[in-house]
């Protein structure tokens, strides 16, 4: 993950905000349990969840990011089990989490495997870029952007609790034009 290591050398944990899909839907989240920040980067989601008392695991391929999370968590007295893990070549399999949050990461070949690591009733919370890059934000490569309705199709066998995909409808100066937010429960 050398590019991401380079990226995180210049940034610090504690400077980022958790994903809006979590903040705006806090009322849907389990009241306690084991949660995973998947491809966590500097762990803004993990830190937010740990501060709320969840048992938090955080995985990312960047050793620099994971080291920075560990140091930040210790400085804030937060408990986060942070590990370096290649999620493309070594995706998880055990159904052990009550909530998995994925923000701004997409690897289509292993996307459906996210469902397998949830306990029955567990929530998959997802937020990332979608459609074509039109405003310079996010990746330009369509491999790393969701297609319209893609999460609904991929996880059609889950119970959808929240979905937002504004697309090109209405006042394009407002709203969430280039991202998807999704929360679904494993049946
Ligand atoms: C755009 S960042 C998002 C980080 C974080 N989720 C957030 O919302 O700020 C994408 C993350 O995916 C991680 N990543 C990319 N490929 C990976 C892989 N194969 N295994 C694990 N993590 C990977 C990168 O290290 C990076 O932290």
Topology of this structure?
Layout: H1 2-9, H2 20-23, E1 34-38, H3 44-51, E2 55-60, H4 63-75, E3 80-84, E4 97-103, H5 108-111, H6 113-116, E5 118-129, H7 150-154, E6 159-164, E7 179-185
Parallel strand pairs: 1-2, 1-4, 2-3, 4-5
Antiparallel strand pairs: 5-7, 6-7
Residues 1, 4, 16, 39-41, 44, 60-62, 65, 86-88, 103-105 line the site of S-adenosylmethionine.
Structure description:
The structure is a single chain. The protein is globular. The chain has 187 residues and is an alpha/beta fold. It has a single domain (2-185), classed as Vaccinia Virus protein VP39 (Rossmann fold). The protein has helices at residues 2-9, 20-23, 44-51, 63-75, 108-111, 113-116, 150-154, and strands at residues 34-38, 55-60, 80-84, 97-103, 118-129, 159-164, 179-185. The model has no long low-confidence stretch (mean pLDDT 96). 35% of the residues are buried. A seven-stranded mixed β-sheet has the order 3-2-1-4-5-7-6. 25% of the residues lie in helices and 26% in strands. β1 (34-38), α3 (44-51) and β2 form a beta-alpha-beta unit. It starts with a helix and ends with a strand. The longest helix has 13 residues, at 63-75. S-adenosylmethionine (SAM) binds next to loops.
């Amino acid at each position: 993950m050398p590019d991401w290591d380079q990226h995180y050398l210049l940034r610090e944990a504690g400077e980022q905000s958790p994903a809006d899909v979590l903040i705006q839907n806090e009322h849907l989240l389990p009241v306690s349990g084991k949660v995973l920040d998947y491809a966590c980067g500097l762990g803004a989601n993990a830190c937010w969840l740990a501060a709320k008392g969840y048992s938090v695991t955080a995985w990312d391929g960047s050793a620099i990011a994971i080291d920075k999370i560990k140091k930040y968590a210790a400085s804030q007295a937060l408990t986060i089990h942070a590990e370096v893990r290649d999620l493309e070549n070594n995706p998880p399999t055990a159904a052990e989490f009550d909530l998995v949050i994925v923000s701004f990461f997409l690897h289509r070949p292993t996307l459906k495997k996210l469902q397998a690591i949830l306990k029955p009733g567990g929530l998959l919370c997802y937020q990332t870029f979608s459609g074509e890059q039109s405003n310079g934000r996010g990746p330009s490569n369509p491999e790393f952007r969701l297609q319209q309705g893609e999460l609904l199709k991929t996880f059609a066998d889950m119970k959808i609790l929240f979905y937002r995909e504004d697309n090109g409808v209405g006042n394009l100066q407002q709203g969430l034009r280039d991202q998807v937010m999704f929360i679904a429960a494993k049946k």
